[in-house]
Design brief:
InterPro entries: 5_3_exoribonuclease, Xrn1_helical, Xrn1_N. The protein has 543 residues and is an alpha/beta fold. It has 4 domains: 194 residues, Rossmann fold (3-Layer(aba) Sandwich); 96 residues, no CATH class; 111 residues, no CATH class; 67 residues, no CATH class. The chain contains 23 helices and 13 strands. The strands form 4 sheets. The chain has a 7-stranded mixed beta sheet, with helices on both faces. The chain has a two-stranded antiparallel ribbon with strand order 8-9. Strands 10-11 form a two-stranded antiparallel ribbon.
């Protein structure tokens, strides 16, 4: 799971928490590795004529390298993504189609369609490649004494759950152990920052590690590419509590009442609030609001609104791990007042960038095809211009063109989005409360419509019905759902070929793209054919 552009914002705004590893005086006890990114790293070195044995060897060698570099004393947790919740699978399906389409267009334009390129869709639970990798990991990391550690904990793609969530489930299940030990989390996903923050009340000595070349891109020039850095999540948590707690509150008589951070009833509530409001900027499960763009004013808008609405230091959106919906109402009520103005600002900003890109496109470059495709959302903006927030009825046009529905359906869309806020928060805190839930639209409701259905009473709650089948799908079902037509051969036992024969309508290649308010092509939403999970499961079971 990830938050676009968040990592760059995070390190620039909180530079002081980036610490050279040599400055960490405590011995590292635990190293927990979220390893899917290492597979992509291996593939991207050279995708042509790639053989799977070399990829697997690279992954095993890289894991061993990180263990020897960080020198943990106790546990090493090696995690890969297993079967995901359906909410995540929707994003996986979208991304795999975009990747297939992008590669297809580039190869056709460059006349390299005959060139063999390794299919990254193989990095999905249930494929033969992932089975081979699982076997290699289990056979390579069997002797802890070779690495001077106590034990290995291995959870590969054959065990359900996203890699990072399996790591934090282990932390939750072993609270006492993690309360006093030092834990380093390795991974390239920016969402690891939020997950680590969310578990500070359990694991107070927690750091994130990224390799320096990746880590220092677009950051501070004083960071040395030859140095290894850790992100001090405990320090970051303290920064959030201080930032979210006003040091003074203006009283009616013009005087100021000082507020001491130490008087907070539960500082963790502030950290949870920070995590919760950032959901509005979009993540793997929910789209971002057009009025809240993380690349422009979105973060500042969220933080400013929070500080204005919650001047009482002990008044929070999250209380002891539960969402206080009446406070969500107060917060969204404030945000909705600037919604139209912020959307207009986005149009003005995007117009400026579009003009620049069109000017730059006159210059022929070696990567002209890739650049034009990647910048398509900024170059071709007919739907945005049709919505036109400067003219009456723009709300109707927003729902009609982007959500394939009318303004009268805003309540249903808003209810689904509220469920998403609850589902995502619970997913971070206690695990997956419903494997079959998903947000069913490419775009969110407008903030003004979302506000209308947020509960306002003290005991109100948003309940996600568990349903009859609250369990993960099978690996073959996930493959049948997320793979594009050209990758169906990756499903074992010719299941993909059979699916294509029985259900050809599920695997169309001529889909439309929605990219309004996106910056890059890979952020686009694809109008993919609807696949009913019950039908998919029954079809596979009967093969």
């Amino acid at each position: 799971m990830g938050i676009p552009s968040y990592f760059s914002h995070f390190v620039k705004r909180h530079r002081q928490i980036i610490k050279p590893m040599c400055q960490i005086t405590n011995r590292i006890n635990n190293l927990y590795l979220d390893c899917n990114g290492i597979i992509y790293e291996a593939v991207n070195i050279d995708r042509t004529n790639k053989n799977e044995e070399s990829i697997i060897k690279y992954v095993c060698d890289k894991i061993a390298f990180h263990i020897k570099t960080l020198k943990p004393s106790n546990n090493v947790f090696i995690a890969f993504d297993g079967v995901a919740p359906i909410a995540k699978m929707n994003q996986q399906r979208n991304r795999r189609y975009l990747s297939w389409y992008q590669n297809k267009i580039i190869r056709e334009k460059k006349h390299t369609s005959g060139e063999k390129v390794w299919d990254t869709s193989a990095i999905t639970p249930g494929t033969l490649f992932m089975s081979k990798l699982t076997s290699a990991i289990n056979s390579t990391f069997t002797r802890p004494y070779e690495f001077d550690i106590t034990r290995f904990i291995i959870s590969c793609s054959d065990k359900v759950g996203e890699g990072e969530h399996k790591i934090f489930e282990y932390i939750r299940d072993n609270k006492e152990y993690h309360s006093e030990t030092v834990t380093v989390i390795y991974g390239l996903d920016a969402d690891l920052i939020m997950l680590s923050l969310n578990h500070l009340h359990i694991c107070k000595y927690i750091y994130l590690f990224r390799e320096t070349p990746e880590f220092i891109q677009s950051l501070d020039k004083t960071l040395s590419p030859n140095e290894k850095y850790l992100l001090d999540i405990s320090e970051f948590g303290k920064n959030i509590v201080e930032e979210f707690t006003p040091t003074k509150v203006e009283l009616q008589d013009g005087l100021c009442d000082l507020v001491n951070v130490l008087n907070l009833k539960n500082p963790n509530n502030k950290i949870h609030d920070y995590i919760f409001i950032f959901f509005l900027l979009g993540n793997d499960f929910l789209p971002h609001f057009p009025a809240l763009n993380i690349r422009t004013t979105g973060i500042d808008t969220l933080l400013k609104a929070y500080k204005l609405k919650f001047v009482d230091a002990n008044k929070t959106i999250i209380e002891d791990g539960e969402i206080v919906w009446r406070r969500v109402y107060e917060y969204i009520d404030h945000l909705k007042d600037s919604e139209l103005g912020n959307i207009k600002y986005e149009y003005i900003t995007r117009d400026r960038l579009t003009k620049k890109l069109k000017s730059d496109s006159l210059i022929i470059s070696e990567n002209e095809i890739e650049n034009k495709l990647n910048n398509s959302p900024m170059l071709f903006r007919d739907t945005e211009r049709f919505i036109d927030p400067w003219n009456c009825g723009w709300e109707h046009r927003y729902y009609n063109s982007l959500l394939k529905t009318s303004l009268s359906d805003a309540e249903q869309i808003s209810k689904n989005y509220l469920e998403g806020l609850e589902w995502t928060f619970k997913y971070y805190n206690v695990g997956c409360i419903n494997w079959r839930w998903s947000y069913n639209y490419a775009y969110p409701p407008l903030l003004s419509d979302l506000l209308k259905i947020i509960p306002r009473t003290n005991d109100a709650n948003v309940t996600i019905r568990e349903g009859v089948l609250n369990k993960p799908v099978s690996p073959n079902t996930q493959l049948g759902y997320v793979l594009p037509k050209n990758s169906l051969w990756l499903i074992p036992n010719n299941i993909g070929i059979s699916l294509l024969e029985i259900r050809p309508g599920w695997y169309k290649e001529d889909c439309n793209f929605k990219w309004s308010f996106c910056k890059y092509f890979w952020e686009s939403h694809v109008d993919l054919p609807h696949i009913n999970f019950s039908e998919l499961e029954n079809t596979i079971d009967n093969l």
